[in-house]
Amino acid sequence: MIGRLNHVAIAVPDLAAAVAVYRDGLGAAVSAPVGQPEHGVTTVFVELPNTKIELLLPLGQDSPIAKFLERNPAGGVHHVCYEVEDILAARDRLAGAGYRVLGDGTPKIGAHGKPVLFLHPKDFCGTLVELEEA
Ligand code: CO
Predict the structure, then answer these.
(1) Which residues are catalytic?
(2) Ligand 1 centre from 39 Cα, in Å?
(3) 14 C-alpha to center of ligand 1: Å?
(4) What's the 98 CA to ligand 1 centre distance in angstroms?
(5) What pLDDT was estimated at residue 126?
(6) CB–CB of 107/115 below 8 Å?
(7) Model's pTM, two decimal places?
(8) Gap from CA of 131 to ligand 1 centroid (Å)
(9) Which of 49, 55, 87, 95 shows the greatest Cβ crowding within 10 Å of its Cβ?
């Protein structure tokens, strides 16, 4: 059911420092920061030949990644995003098999303008999983 790895998201406490690591240290192509207030994050995309890295910095009071950074002050891998062809079919298949879909199960428009859903990390090997309709 899942297809390509769309991105790996890494929460960081200092976006400029993280950009320097990826752009200057690792020599990757890095986008300008984009504020996504509806998701409570500022994002920078690192373009790799076969996937992307999404650097996430908290934005606003109720950022979903603020608590993650409290537990992981140096930053860390926050979620992985897999592509699916039909997000509603994927949701129904997973929910029907007893997997927990976060929120009310209604896809939101994600950072790439495509519908996304998040899946409970306890049901997926301890990793927060994002599904994106590609
Ligand atoms: Co993501």
Answers:
(1) 130
(2) 10
(3) 18
(4) 23
(5) 97
(6) yes
(7) 0.93
(8) 8
(9) 55
What is the 96 CA–ligand 1 centroid distance (Å)? 24
62-118 confidence digits (pLDDT tens)? 888 999 999 999 999 999 999 999 999 999 999 999 999 999 999 998 878 899 999
Residue the block writes with tokens 């002050």: 73
- Give the chain as a DSSP string: ----EEEEEEE-S-HHHHHIIIIIIS--EEPPPEEEGGGTEEEEEEE-SS-EEEEEEE-STT-TTHHHHHH-TT-EEEEEEEEES-HHHHHHHHHHTTPPBSTTS--EE-TTSSEEEEE-GGGTTT--EEEEE-
pLDDT digits (tens, 9 = 90+) for 20-76: 999 999 999 999 999 988 889 999 999 999 999 999 999 987 888 999 999 999 999
**Cα separation, 53 vs 47, whole angstroms:** 7
Is residue 47 within 8 A of residue 94, CB to CB? The reply is no
